[in-house]
Fold these 4 entries.
Entry 1:
Amino acid sequence: MEKKAEYTHSFYLTAGEAGAQSTMPLTLLVQRVIEVATEHANALNIGYATLASHGVAWVLSKISVEMQRYPAINEQYSLTTWIESYNRRFCDRCFALTGSDGVTIGHIRTVWTAIDVRRRCMADLTEFERDTFPLSERPCPVEKTPRLPALPDNASAQQYTFRYCDIDFNRHVNSVRYLAMVLNHWTMDHFDNNTIRHIDICYHRECYFGETVQLRVATRDRVSDCEIARDGTRAVGVRIIWAPRVQKC
Amino acid sequence: MEKKAEYTHSFYLTAGEAGAQSTMPLTLLVQRVIEVATEHANALNIGYATLASHGVAWVLSKISVEMQRYPAINEQYSLTTWIESYNRRFCDRCFALTGSDGVTIGHIRTVWTAIDVRRRCMADLTEFERDTFPLSERPCPVEKTPRLPALPDNASAQQYTFRYCDIDFNRHVNSVRYLAMVLNHWTMDHFDNNTIRHIDICYHRECYFGETVQLRVATRDRVSDCEIARDGTRAVGVRIIWAPRVQKC
C-alpha cells in the first residue's frame, strides 16, 4: 500500500449525532479526530495492530481545536490529517476540517505518545521504521497546546467517579469522556448563547475505573480554565475560549 | 434516487472506539443503528430534513438487540436495515449485523415513532407518502420488544442528573445516554466475566436537561431488569440477559 503523507475521510452529520444546538458536538469532533488518526496510522503500518504486537499503544497526549463553525445536521464534512513532525517519544499530527462548501472551517493540532501497555509508561518509538512516518509540509495555524497554569483557589469544584462506559480498550478513561465531564459543567442556556471557538486539552495522567476525581473550573471573561485532578494531582488540564453564538434569524 | 427496501453501511471498528473488553461497545452499536436508520430514511425521503419541514422528528421508541458476538478491534462489519411494517403511528425497522467473515453475528429490532417537535406529542405519519416506505420480506429472528414488569421493592436505587452532553438535537436526552447510565451500574469485573447476549429497551417518556432521575436495578440469575424513573414514573425500561464471557486462551 502506498504510504500517503495526507489522509482524508469524509463524513455526514446525521441528526442523531448532533448536539442540542443542532451542530456537531465537540465530543464527536474529538472522537472523529482520534478515528481518522487511527485510520491513517493503520494505513502507514504504525497503527493499533503493529504497535499491539510490540505491547505498545498510541495515546492522545494533547489536543487543540480551533473552529470557525461546526458542521450542521445533514452536512457532509471531511477531516484531513498529516504528520507534522515526530521524535522517539512523540508524534505531532494536524488536521483540517472542511465543510460541505469546500471551505476549511477548523483546524486541530494533536500530540500522540506511545505507551508500554503492561508497564503503563512511555514507550520508545525508535524501533518502528522511520520511513513509516511520511511528513507533510502543510501548515497548521493552531499554535502548540500550552500548559494550563495553576487554578485560583476560588475555582469551583465538583466530584465525579469514572464508570464502565468511560473506559476504553487501553483500560483507562477514554479521552472523550474527560471532555464530556468538563462540558457538563455548564448549563444548556450557556451553550445556547456561546460556542467554543478554541479549546486546549492536556492529558497528564491516566485515570481508571472506579476512581473519583475533582473537576475545578475558573472562568474570567471569555476564558474558562478547567482541571480534572485525582488526589490533588492534575490528570487533565483544559482551557476553553468561548465566543457568542450567532443566533439564526 | 431509487428507493431500496434494504440499505447497508459498512464500518470498521477502530481501537479508539472499542470498549474495555476490546470489542464494540453496546452504546456504539445502538448509535450505529440510529445512524443507519437515519441514512436509510434520508435515502427514502422520509428522513430528518423532510420531517423537520413538517415540524416532525423520528424518535426511537423501542429497541431489542440479540448478539452472538460483538465486532473486534480492526474488524470490518456491516449493518443492513429494512422496514418490516408501519402504520400511521409507528415504523418497525430491523437490522442484521455481519462480521468480517460474512457471518451474521447479531440482529436488532426497533420501533420508531414520529413526534410533533413543538407540541411534544406523537405525530401522524399519514401525510407522508405511503410509497416512500418500501417493505422487505426479510425475516428478523428477534421477538417484539416486551414491556418490562414492575420492579420488586428491593431493587437497588441510584440517582443521576442529566447534563449538557446527554442532550441531543431534539432537546431531550439522547437514547444512547440512557443506556450508558444503565450499563454504568455494573463493575468492570462484571463486564470482564459477562457479555450482553440480549437487551430490550423501551423509551416511555422523554427526559430533559437538568432533570434528576432514579435508576433501579433488580437482577435474578442471568436477567437484570432496570428502570429509569422520574418522580416515580417510568421513563425508560431495560431488560438485560447476560451470558458468561468466553475467555480467550
Entry 2:
Amino acid sequence: MRILKEDFLIRSGEFAELKEFSDIINEIQNAIKTVTWNSPDKFVINPKRKGNGVVPIKNNFIEDLKRYNWQGEVRMTLAKGMNPGPIDVIKDTSYGRFAVEWETGNISSSHRAMNKIAVGIIQKQIIGGILILPVKSFAKYLTDRIGNYEEFAPYFCMYEKLQIAEGVIGIIGIEHDKEDENVPLIKKGKDGNAKK
Amino acid sequence: MRILKEDFLIRSGEFAELKEFSDIINEIQNAIKTVTWNSPDKFVINPKRKGNGVVPIKNNFIEDLKRYNWQGEVRMTLAKGMNPGPIDVIKDTSYGRFAVEWETGNISSSHRAMNKIAVGIIQKQIIGGILILPVKSFAKYLTDRIGNYEEFAPYFCMYEKLQIAEGVIGIIGIEHDKEDENVPLIKKGKDGNAKK
C-alpha cells in the first residue's frame, strides 16, 4: 500500500523532537507499506466502484504494527465524561500513549475520530495520534460512503488552530499500489458505517 | 420546548459585545421556546423510546426564526475546498453571517456540524454559529442513534482551545416540556441519519 499524503496538523513540544517519535512514524509508515492484497508485496485491488470492504485491510495493518510492539483494540477513555471506547492501535512511549485510528466509517466518523485524538491530547490521556484514511482515488473502490482524505482536508485548519503545547496530531492518506480487474474483491461487512 | 443547557465555547472579539449579538441569541431562544407539539404552547411528547422523528421539530424551529428575518436552508461554502452545503438557518449581521444548525443525525454528524462552524469562523465565512441538540432525557424518545448534548460535552474542551480572535461558537441542549402517552408520535423519515 502507498502513502500519498502525510500531514502533521500539530507537532509541538519535546516529544515531537525525540527519536522515539520518529521511530513511531517509521513503524506506522512501514506497517502501511506492508499491507498487501492479492500479491506477495503489493496491494492489488479490483477496481470495482464501491466494490471492496475495508475492515480486512485495517486488520492487516494492525497485525503488522503488532510486530513493533503495538497493541490492537485497546479500550481507553480519552476525556473526562467520555465512555471508554476502542482505539485501533496504541503504543506506550516515555511521554504517554500514542494512538492510531484507521478509518472504516463515513466522513462524519472521521471528524469524531480526529476530535477524539485532539481531546485525548488536551486532557493528557495520549501524547499524540494519527488518523489514516483512503485518498479519493482509493476510496471510490471501497464501501459506499467511506470518508476520504480530500473530503477531510478543508478541516485541517481547525486542528492547526488548537493551542496544544505538547503533542502530535497527524493524518495519512493511503492508496492501493495497483489495479487489476481479475483479482477477488475484498469482503464487506462490519465496515464501521452506521447501519440502520 | 425548553432550553436546558447553553454554553459558549468561544465568545471572542467585538461582535460578541454588541446588542446585535444578544438580539440573535434572544431570537434563537425564543424560537426554541415557541416550538410546540400536541399543545398550543407546550412541546408535549409521547414518551415512547426511539418513537419520534426529529425533522418536523427542526422545521418548526426554522419557521419560527423566519419571523425574525432568518433564512432557512441556505447553501454556502464554509471553507476553501469544501463543497457548498446547506446550513439550517442563517442571519446576516454587520459582522457577517451567523449560522444555526439543528442536529437531526447521529453523534458523528454533530462533530462534523460543529467542526464546520469552527472552520467557517476561522476562514471568516461566518461570524459565529450555534449547534442545537437534544439532551439525553429528550433524545431517548427520538429516532434511534440521534446524538445528544451529554454525549458531545466531553469534546467542548477542544473548541475552547481554538485560537479565534473574533467569533462565537455555542451549543444549546433542548428538552420537551411535558410527556403524555396519549398524544400522537412525531412522524419519522428523512431524519438525517446515515441510511444504507
Entry 3:
Amino acid sequence: MALLGLVTAGALASFARLADDAVNAPDIAGRLTLTRMAGGSLTHLDELERAVADRGGDLAAAAAPFLALLGDLDARTTPRDWWERLIRTYIAGGMVIDLQRAMSEGLDGSVRTLAQDALVENGHADYVVRTLGPVIEVDPQLAARLALWGRRVAGEALSLAQNVVRACPFPEGGADDAETAVAALVSAMTGGHARRMGRLSLTA
Amino acid sequence: MALLGLVTAGALASFARLADDAVNAPDIAGRLTLTRMAGGSLTHLDELERAVADRGGDLAAAAAPFLALLGDLDARTTPRDWWERLIRTYIAGGMVIDLQRAMSEGLDGSVRTLAQDALVENGHADYVVRTLGPVIEVDPQLAARLALWGRRVAGEALSLAQNVVRACPFPEGGADDAETAVAALVSAMTGGHARRMGRLSLTA
C-alpha cells in the first residue's frame, strides 16, 4: 500500500512540476508539449485508486506523506531560469522514478506491475536532451553552471530518498536487509543520474 | 481557424489554472480532484490539432494570441486566498466557456461541433458549489467579499471578451453584424455570470 501511495504522489508531483514548467515555457509549442506530458502523468491514477481501494485504503491518504516529501524537494530546488527548470525536472523527475522502480522490485506481482507501468517514460528526457543539448554545446559557462545545479538537485533527491525509506518500511525485513536495500537504491539513483548528465555531456 | 485557436488557448489556460489551483488545494483529496479536472481540460487537444492541421495551420501559432489574452486575465485576478481562487476559476472559467460557445454558434458544422464538444463541463462548478456554498452560508462577511471579488473577475472577463473579438473577426460580416454579435456575446456572458453567482447565493 505504501508503495502505491508513493507512486501516486510521484504522479501528482510530476504533474504539478510539468504543468508549472509548461506555463513558464519560452514558446507556445513548448508549452503544448509540456502540458501534454503533464497530462500523461495522470494516466494510471484511476488504476492506482482502484488498487488502493481494493486494499481497503484511500488514495489521498496513501499519497499524503510522500507528497509532502516531494513538495519539499521542489521547494528546495527553485530554478533561477528556464534551463535550471528543465534540468530540475529532468534530474529530480528521473531520480524519483529510479527510486520508485528500485523500491517496487522487491514486491509481489500485481502491485509491482502496476507501479512499474505507472513509471513509463513520458518523453521529457528526450525533450530536454533535444532542446538543451545544443545550447550547452556552445556555451561552456552555462554548461558549468548547469553541472553544478544538476549536482545540487541530485543531492536533494538523495535526501528525499532517505526520507521516503524512513516513511515507507522497505523492505519488510530486518535492519541488515534495510541497509543493503538502501545501498542498492542509492546506487540505482546515482547511476541513473550519471547516465542522464552524460546524455547532456555534463559531469555528474 | 481563429476559433479553433481560441478553444485550444481556452483549454491550455483552463489546464494551467486548475493545475495551479490543485497545488494550492488545502487538502490532498481536493488536490486529486482538481488535478484530474486539469487533466480533463486536455481531452480534445489531439482533435483540435488535427482540425487545425487539416486547415493548413499550426496549433501553437493558432492558440498564441488568445493564450496571451487569457494569461492577462489570470495576471489581473490574482487571488488572495483559497476562496478567491475557487471563485476566480469558477467565474473566469465559466465566462470564457460562455464566450467560446457564443462565438462558435455562427460557425459551420464540423468546427462548431468540435468547439462545442471541447467545452464540456468538467465538474468544477459543482465542486465549487459543494465546497464553498456551505462556508458562504454561515459567513456573511466572506460572502460580501466574494461577491465583490466575483464582480471584479467578471469585469476582467468582459474586457477579455472585447479583446478576443478584436483579435478574432467575428462574425464575418459588416460592422452592424459585429455590433449585434458582440451585444449577444456580452449578454450570454453576463447571464451565465448571474446564474453562477446565484448558485452560491451571491449577488452578481
Entry 4:
Amino acid sequence: MKESFKNHTIFFKNSPRIIGHYSLVGKKESEGNFKEYFDEVLNDDLIREKSYESAERKMLQRAIDKATISANLKYEQIDAVVLGDLLNQITSSSFSARELPSAFIGVYGACSTMAESLIIGSMLIDGSYMENVACGTCSHFSSSEKQYRFPLELGNQRPIMAQWTVTGAGVSILSKADTGIKITCATFGKVEDYGVKDANNMGAAMAPAAMSTLIAHFDNTNTIPKDYDLILTGDLGKLGSDILRDLMEKSPYKLGENYSDCGAMIYSKRQHTMQGGSGAGASASVLNSYVIKKMEKGEFKKVLFVATGALLSPLTTLQGESIPAVAHAVVLEI
Amino acid sequence: MKESFKNHTIFFKNSPRIIGHYSLVGKKESEGNFKEYFDEVLNDDLIREKSYESAERKMLQRAIDKATISANLKYEQIDAVVLGDLLNQITSSSFSARELPSAFIGVYGACSTMAESLIIGSMLIDGSYMENVACGTCSHFSSSEKQYRFPLELGNQRPIMAQWTVTGAGVSILSKADTGIKITCATFGKVEDYGVKDANNMGAAMAPAAMSTLIAHFDNTNTIPKDYDLILTGDLGKLGSDILRDLMEKSPYKLGENYSDCGAMIYSKRQHTMQGGSGAGASASVLNSYVIKKMEKGEFKKVLFVATGALLSPLTTLQGESIPAVAHAVVLEI
C-alpha cells in the first residue's frame, strides 16, 4: 500500500450544488449502455462543420449553452468556464470560451479533466469568489485518432488493449444554492508512472493513478468503498478497471459490486470497441447523464467520481518515455 | 471601452504569501536586461539531455526543486504543484510532477500560465485547503520552435513582428505565512479574439485580451494605473505593448511610465529578437527574479502582473482560424 497524502483531499464548507448539466454524444455512443440517459445525440459526426476539430468545439459550445439553459441562467450569469480538452493547446475549450462573456480558466488533466474542472469550479463557489461556474470537457473520436494515432483513412487495425475515444461532451453548472446535488469534498491526484510504455494500453498506465487517489481519498475522509452507492472511474476500460480491482485487493479498500468504470460501461459488447471507451468526453458525458440523473431520482445518494488521465503526448511516446497518469476524485451527494 | 465583468475579480481574505521562488534562464536571456536578477543561467541549452523537450522538463524540475529549498521546505510539504507549459499535453509539467509526492493540478493558459497558476494556488491557500503550493511554468526556445514553427535546422527567416521564445522557468511557493509578498486579489481574463490571424504577430493578438482584463480589474478594484508601482504584462513584446498603450488611451485608464512588458524588456536591443521575448517562461522568469527581488527590497510596493496568452495551436492556424487570447491579472503587495 502506498503512503497517503493528507492535504490532497479538500473539503468544501459551503458545498457547491450542481444546478444544471448537459451531455451530448455521437451516434455510436448513443447505441451503447447509456442510450436512454444522454440529453442529445448527434446525427452526424461533423455537425455540418468543415473539420472534426471544429465539430468537437461546436459540441462543447452546445453543451455549455444547454447546461446554462438547464440551470435557468443566461450567459452573463456564468462568471467563469473551467474547461479543458485533449486537442493540442486545448483549442476546443479556448475557442468555445471566446464566444462567452465568462472568464476562462483552462485546465488540463487529459481524461481526468471533468473531475479537475469540477474541483476548481467548486473552490470558486465554496470560497464565495464567484456565483455560477460552468465546468466541462469533450472529446471526439476522429480528431483524437488524427492527433494521437493514425489518419482514419489508413484503416489501421486496433490492438486488443485499445479503447475507443468517445465522441461526447458534458458540462455541469455549479452554484451556491439550497437544492441540487452537492459536491462535498475532493481529492487531487498525484502523478503515478509505473513504467507502462504502450500508448495503446492506457488502462494499465492509468490504473495505478486511480489506486493512489482512491487510497488517499479513503484514508483522508475516513470512508471505505461500501460508504458509496457508486464508485466510478473515468476511462480505465475493461482491462484497466480489472487491474485497478486487483491493485486495490492489496489495500484495505477492496472494491465491490458498487465499482464501475465509464469507459468499460459506455459501449455494449456488440460494439467491438475492445476495452471500451476513453477520452475526456467519456466520463464527462456519463457523469452528466447517467450519474446525475440517477442521483436526481434518489437512486444513488453518494457517488465517488474518479476521472483518470494519461498524461502522455505522441512525442513523448516516440521518444520512448513511459506514460505518467493522474486521477482526481470528487464526492457527489444528495 | 468594453463592458466590465464584476465577478471576474476575486479577493483573498487570507492573502497567500510568496515564501519561496526561483528563476532560471538560458544563456541568451542572461545577456539581456535582467542578467543580474536571474537565480541561475544554463551553460548549455540541452543540459546534457537527449532532447530539447527533456531539457525543458529538467529546467522546470530544477526550478521547483530550488524554489522549495528557498522556502525552507521539503518536497513532502508541498501539497500541490499547479503547473502548465506550452508543449503538447503540457508534458514538461506532468513529467516534472511525476517526480514529486505533491498533487498535480495541470493548467493551460499558454503564456498566461504563470498568472493562472498563481491564482489557483492562491485559492488553495486562501481557502485553507492546502498549506504550501508550488506554482510555475517554463518554455524553451528550441522545443517551441520545433512544435509551433519550423525545424531549427531549416534556418527560417524571422518576420519583423516575431518574438523570441524565452528559454526559462519560474516557480513561486505560496503559503499561509505572516511575512513575504502578499497576493491580495486577482482577475481572471475573458477570451478575446479581434480576428488577428498572423501567428507571427502574437503581440497584436494578445493586446486586446490584456486590455479587457486590465479594464475589468481597474473597474472591479476601484484602482487606477497610478495606484501600482509597476504594471507588467507578460509577453506582448514591443509592438504588442505599444498596441496595448494605444488601446488603453481610449479607456479611463491610460497607462503611464509605470507600465512595462516582460517580453519587451527581457532582451537588450543588441540581441536582435525583433519584438522581444515570448513564451510562458518569459513572464515566469521575470516575475520570479526582477519583480519579486525588487519587491523584497521594497523598491516596488504594489505590482499588477498581467500574463498574456495566445490560445492558438499550429493546427488552428493551418485551418485559417484567428487567434483567441486571454490575460490573467494578479496583484502582489508588500
